[in-house]
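Shall we go through a protein fold together, starting from nothing but its sequence? Label the sequence line and the structure token line clearly, so we can match residues to local backbone shapes. Would you write everything just below, so we can both look at the same thing?
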Amino acid sequence: MNVIVDAKEVGFVENGWVGREITIGDAVRLQVAAPDSRCVMTTLAQDELPKDNDILRTLAQHNMIQVGDAGRFPCVGVYAVVEAAGALRIGDKVSLS
């Protein structure tokens, strides 16, 4: 993940962002291109965190969505294309249009 957004809504709010634009701070603009389908990599041990197969199972149970014409996948997050680059800072305002 490159950017984590603290959304006020509950759930997988990013599912509704595909095709929309995100503005962060004063300059950064991103075009949301696709949901981020997750794979077995999410279950592997990371530093002090142990391997956990339940991570992918939980995503599959709670957020299986259609990804283009490829099929339904467990997803969390989105892929975005940079339309305007700039510096990001913790606490920057994030807006969706």
The longest strand covers residues 71-84. The helical segments are 54-62. Strands lie at 21-24, 28-37, 64-67, 71-84, 94-96.
